[in-house]
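Researcher: Let's do a round of design. I'm pasting the structure tokens now; please hold your answer until I've finished.
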């Protein structure tokens, strides 16, 4: 009789443990990447320039610049000035753009009008996080703006991450445009 009671108690504990594990796995599977910081801005800038971090520069977003950026993004730029880092021959840009519902923060390094590095810094969406991986990001290396303001080569999409891929491509185009504009004399 005693062993029967022990087995009932143990099976009840086992069921509770299974229920707890099932609840925990459900929470893990449905968790979002909410503010999943992949790389800090400081680490990105150090990656781009090494130990000789250049001073922060500012590109004022004039009406003309805002119109050009709006054509790329499909909406007005969020700020009146864009901060960036300018080295001897390259610039680094940290930009934000909405993926599906949340902003994605990404960094781009531009040298001689071409992207030489692309990194996702913070990913906040629940899906599409594959854009953070080097195998995806290396597609942007060497990209430049063509005469119609598009990237010079195609970027392969990721199934289930179309909006995140599109956001990254728009940010890449904005970084290239702003790099070009930062070299023009101030008017």
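Researcher: That's everything. Go ahead.
Model: Designed sequence:
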């Amino acid at each position: 009789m005693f062993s029967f009671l022990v087995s009932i108690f143990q099976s009840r504990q086992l069921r509770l443990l299974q229920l707890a594990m099932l609840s925990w796995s459900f929470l893990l599977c449905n968790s979002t990447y909410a503010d999943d910081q992949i790389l800090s801005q400081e680490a990105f800038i150090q990656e781009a320039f090494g130990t000789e971090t250049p001073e922060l520069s500012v590109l004022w977003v004039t009406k003309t610049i805002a119109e050009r950026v709006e054509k790329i993004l499909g909406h007005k730029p969020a700020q009146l000035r864009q901060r960036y880092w300018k080295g001897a021959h390259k610039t680094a840009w940290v930009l934000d753009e909405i993926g599906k519902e949340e902003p994605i923060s990404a960094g781009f390094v531009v040298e001689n009008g071409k992207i030489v590095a692309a990194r996702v810094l913070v990913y906040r969406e629940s899906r599409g996080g594959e854009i953070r991986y080097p195998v995806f990001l290396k597609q942007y290396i060497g990209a430049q703006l063509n005469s119609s303001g598009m990237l010079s080569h195609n970027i392969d999409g990721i199934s289930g991450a179309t909006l995140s891929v599109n956001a990254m491509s728009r940010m890449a185009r904005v970084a290239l445009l702003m790099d070009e504009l930062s070299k023009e004399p101030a008017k």
